[in-house]
Amino acid sequence: MADSRTTTTTTRRTAGPILPPPPGSGGHFEPKGSRHVAFMELPPKHHSDYERSSDSSEHNPHCFACGMRTFMCIFVFFLLLLVIGAIFISFLYAGLPRVQIRRFEFSKLNISEKISNTSNSTSTSGKVHLTADTDILMVFRNRNGISKLKYGSFSVKVSWQDIKLGRTEIAAFTQDKNNSTTFSLRTRVEEQEVDLEDLNELKTELENENAVFHLALRGDLGFNFGSLNVHGLPTSINCNPKKQQIDLARRPRCRVRLFPV
After folding, report:
1. Closest C-alpha among 102, 168, 105, 166 to residue 140
2. 239 burial class (0-12, 13-18, 19+ CB within 10 angstroms)?
3. Segment Disordered: which positions (predicted)?
4. Prediction pTM value
5. 147 exposed, middle or buried (CB, 10 Å; 0-12, 13-18, 19+)?
6. Please, is 158 exposed, middle or buried when counting C-beta atoms within 10 Å of its C-beta (0-12, 13-18, 19+)?
7. Domain segments of the chain as ranges
8. Among 64-73, 175-184, 193-202, which range has the highest average pLDDT?
């Protein structure tokens, strides 16, 4: 028994010295090439790319907010201009004059007996020559008590359907507040070739007092608001007087528009 214990002790001693663990391992074995070494071997450029992407993500919200503020400022500016312009135009329209036709009649209406027909037409579809003088009495009234009106020269054209009855012109003038100005106009056509059928229709409507004529005036208008002067605004005046209305002294009104198309 004594010999067996001695043999066991000898075997433990001859097993050889135990190697100490590597430094920093805490007594545990770590394989070659730890995570720390692999991370340190990554190229430095990955760090710079990450930093640039994070910086751009931080600045993008600020750029978007700045752009939205700029857009809103521009939108509000143009909206204010639109509102101010609409108010100004409405104010001008409220100060437009009232134009009426007091008299419209033919002082002369002659039709030549000579009919120029084509070889394939009859006398009822031929041409005749018209000579006519038209007398018109127009009233311009400045209804507002705020501004004076300054009229430029106005061209006047008179017609009935396709038949032209001449043209004339109204010279420039100025109108005070709450004031009326009357113009006596005369237009003339001489030996104008017209369709016989159209002329017969005009004569019939004149007899029945159903003829509707057309007066077109084109010129410019200005407003004097104290020290503020607005001049040279393109203006159109369109009148469609009916013979019966004029004979009954109804004084048909004309349409006055700024900036005609």
Report:
1. 102
2. buried
3. 1-33
4. 0.66
5. buried
6. buried
7. 65-94, 98-258
8. 175-184
138, two tokens: 């127009």
Q: Are 152 and 219 contacting, i.e. CB atoms less than 8 angstroms apart?
A: yes
Exposed/middle/buried for 224, CB within 10 Å: 0-12, 13-18, 19+?
middle
What's the residue count for the chain? 261
Q: Is there a contact between 213 and 104 (Cβ–Cβ < 8 Å)?
A: yes
The set of residues, in sequence order, having a beta carbon less than 8 Å from that of 126 and lying 6+ positions away, is 115, 116, 117, 118, 196
Beta strands in 49-201, from DSSP E residues, in sequence order: 98-111, 127-142, 148-151, 154-160, 163-170, 173-175, 179-195
Say if residue 47's pLDDT is above 90.
no
Give dist(CA 62, CA 71) in Å, integer.
14
Query: Tell me: the pLDDT tens digits for 130-150?
Result: 999 999 999 999 988 888 999
Q: Tell me the two tokens of residue 139.
A: 């009233």
